[in-house]
Design brief:
CATH topology of the largest domain: FAD/NAD(P)-binding domain
Protein name: FAD-dependent oxidoreductase
Helix content: 25-40%
Largest sheet: 8 strands, mixed
Shape: globular
Number of helices: 10
InterPro entries: Amino_oxidase, FAD/NAD-bd_sf
CATH class of the largest domain: Alpha Beta
Number of strands: 19
CATH superfamily of the largest domain: FAD/NAD(P)-binding domain
CATH architecture of the largest domain: 3-Layer(bba) Sandwich
GO molecular function, one term: oxidoreductase activity
Pfam families: Amino_oxidase (PF01593), NAD_binding_8 (PF13450)
Mean pLDDT: 95
Order of helices and strands: EHEEEHEEEEHEEEEHHEHEEEHHEEEHH
C-alpha cells in the first residue's frame, strides 16, 4: 500500500510527488501515457525531435527563475532567444516584443523538464485509471487501472489521492457515486473550461536552411492575433544543435481547433495551418517533406478555478491539482503541485516541509 497515489505525470503531479517523496512518504505516480511532462511535450521524430506542447520557459517570476537556474546548472535548458515577435495582419510586418526577456528551451526537448522532475519517482506508465473508490471500511483508496500487457497489476491502493489531470478527465473519475464526492465539488470541476489547439510539426529540405539565415528579422518564435487561425509559429530546429533540416512547429487558435475536435482526419486542418503560415511568413512553409499533427483537446485553461487546489469532501483524503487550479499555465501547475503536497502532508504526518528554494536542488541530489 502507498501513502500517496498521484494520477497524472504532468508538472503539477510530478512536483507534488517529488515534494512528498522527499519527505519520506511512499508515493506512486499513475500516468496513462508512456512519458512524463503532460503538455510540456516533445515528439521524437526521425533524426530529430519537436516541442509540440509547451513552447519555452520564461523565468519572469521567482518560482520559474529558481527552476530555470537549476535546470541550467544541469545543462537541461539554455537561452533560446531574447526576443519574440508579433505578426501584424494589417501590414504583414513582424513587430518585436517591447520588453527584452530571455526565453529558455531544452535542446533535447522540453519534456526533459518533466524527466528532471520525475527523477527517482515510482511512475507507472501506461497506467490509465478506470475508477477510484474507497474500500468498504473507508480506510484506503482503491484504484483500478485499465488492463494492458505492460502492467503487472491493475489494482493500486493508497491512503491519499492526488488527481493532477485536466478537469474534464478528473470529472470522469469523480462523478460515480461510489467516490463519495459531493455535487458541490463536482460542479466546481464542471465549471472549468479549456481551449483546444491543433499542433503541426513540419520538416523541410536541408537546402532551405540558408533561406532562414536571410530572413529580416531572423525570428525564432512568432505570435499571431487572437482572431487568426494561427496562434504561434516556432522555428523549432533552431533549438537543436547541429539540426540537419529546418523543422517548424505551428499552433492553431482555439477557435480554429474547435472545428476539428472530433475529426478523424486532421490532415485538412494541418494543410490549412501551413497555408496560412506560408501566406503570412515564409512562402515555402506549405511544402514540407513530412508533417505530423497532434490534437490538444485541453491545451490552455480558459476558465480556471480561483484556488490553487480543489479539496474533495470525500470519505478519504483527495485533492485535485493542475494549471486549472489557479491558472497561469506552467507556473500555476507548479504552485498547485506544491500546495497539493502541503495539503496531503497535513492529512498524513504533518512533517516539516523544506523551503521551495531547496526543493529543486534536492531533486538533482
Amino acid at each position: 500500500m502507498f501513502d500517496v497515489a498521484v494520477i497524472g505525470a504532468g508538472m503539477a503531479g510530478l512536483t507534488c510527488a517529488q515534494q512528498l517523496q522527499q519527505l519520506g512518504y511512499q508515493v506512486v505516480v499513475l500516468e496513462k501515457s508512456r512519458g512524463v511532462g503532460g503538455r510540456v511535450a516533445t515528439r521524437r521524430l526521425p533524426e530529430t525531435r519537436a516541442d509540440h506542447g509547451a513552447r519555452f520557459l520564461k523565468p519572469n517570476t521567482d518560482l520559474l527563475h529558481q527552476l530555470v537556474m537549476v535546470l541550467s546548472s544541469h545543462h537541461i535548458v539554455q537561452p533560446w532567444t531574447d526576443r519574440l515577435y508579433q505578426f501584424n495582419p494589417d501590414n504583414g510586418e513582424l513587430v518585436a516584443d517591447a520588453n527584452w526577456c530571455p526565453y529558455y528551451i531544452a535542446p533535447e526537448g522540453m519534456n526533459a523538464v518533466g524527466k528532471f522532475l520525475g527523477t527517482g519517482l515510482n511512475i507507472c506508465f501506461s497506467g490509465r485509471v478506470e475508477k477510484i473508490y474507497p474500500d468498504r471500511n473507508n480506510l484506503i483508496w482503491q484504484i483500478t487501472l485499465e488492463a494492458t500487457s505492460e502492467l503487472e497489476s491493475t489494482e493500486v491502493v493508497a491512503r491519499t489521492l492526488v488527481m493532477a489531470i485536466p478537469a474534464p478527465q478528473a470529472l470522469t473519475l469523480l462523478e460515480p457515486e461510489a467516490t463519495g464526492v459531493s455535487s458541490a465539488v463536482l460542479d466546481k470541476v464542471r465549471s472549468v473550461e479549456f481551449d483546444p489547439c491543433i499542433a503541426v510539426m513540419a520538416g523541410y529540405p536541408a537546402a532551405r536552411q540558408k533561406d532562414l539565415a536571410q530572413q529580416n528579422p531572423v525570428w525564432r518564435g512568432l505570435f499571431f492575433p487572437p482572431n487568426d487561425p494561427l496562434a504561434w509559429i516556432a522555428w523549432d530546429s533552431s533549438k537543436r544543435k547541429g539540426a540537419k533540416q529546418p523543422v517548424f512547429v505551428l499552433h492553431s487558435s482555439a477557435e480554429f481547433a474547435e472545428n476539428y475536435l472530433e475529426a478523424t482526419d486532421l490532415q485538412p486542418a494541418g494543410d490549412r495551418i501551413l497555408d496560412r503560415a506560408a501566406e503570412c511568413t515564409i512562402p515555402w512553409l506549405n511544402a514540407p517533406e513530412w508533417v505530423q499533427i497532434h490534437r490538444w483537446r485541453y491545451a490552455f485553461c480558459r476558465r480556471p478555478l480561483p484556488e490553487e487546489i480543489l479539496i474533495a469532501d470525500s470519505p478519504l483524503p483527495l485533492v485535485c491539482a493542475g494549471d486549472w487550479c489557479g491558472g497561469n499555465q506552467i507556473e500555476g501547475a507548479l504552485r498547485s503541485g506544491f500546495e497539493a503536497a502541503r495539503w496531503i502532508n497535513g492529512q498524513l504526518q504533518e512533517l516539516p516541509l523544506p523551503p521551495l528554494a531547496s526543493f529543486w536542488h534536492r531533486i538533482a541530489g
